[in-house]
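1st attempt posting a full record on here, be nice pls
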Amino acid sequence: MAGSWGRFNIVSLVLGFAFLYLPILLLVIYSFNESRLVTVWAGFSTKWYVELFSNRGLMDAAWVTARVAFLSATVATVLGTMAAIALTRYTRFRGRLLFSGMVFAPLVMPEVITGLSLLLLFVAINFDRGFFTVTIAHITFSMCFVAVVVQSRLMSFDQSLEEAALDLGATPAKAFFQVTLPVILPAVISGWMLAFTLSLDDLVIASFTSGPGATTLPMKIYSQVRLGVTPEINAVCTILIGIVALGVIAASIVTKRQEVQRRRDEQAAIRVAG
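the predicted structure (as tokens):
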């Protein structure tokens, strides 16, 4: 009985991963297809990557997307970290429940509602839609994800380390940047990468808040896919997959090294104390 359940779990796991990743693998393979027909294999070729970099519309959309993602992820990381510190360190202050609800509301809010509400806001204040409106919108919905990631790390942070630095004469700002921030830095980096990825992937909110000259790559791909999938679309999607994969691998390596270094420091401190 136990063996049958074990085989069932393995088969379910294999089928689940195949359902998730087999289409992505096929997309990557067909991005190297010689034929313009994306469903007919005609041999290996990289010409569609050359065509991609010659496609002015896709390259402009990719440049806009990269700038929006970098700027929105950076600002969202700063604001999300500050919100996480406020919710973790200051458990009692007037309006805390309202503040936490406003911070985490975008987590459960449908993207259509978020995009429509931001569109109405920009129209009401007569703010021209474009690069900055898309960036503001992405900061709004990605900040909460950063706050969740950083708050989970701050919950297990030993505040006596920061208190010791304050007792030794460090200012609160210096104690934070030299003691607290290095400890929570893996969570901050993870939050930044999550915000960056969410911005790269967003279509709905950007569609509501974009304007002339601010077409993001997902919007460009969606508009072209409605007329039919082209090999350039496969190529650009493959590049995006590679960028995300490299980012995840780099974050994992950095986190692992910092964890190893932390354990070494703890063992060294124990040996010195002993």
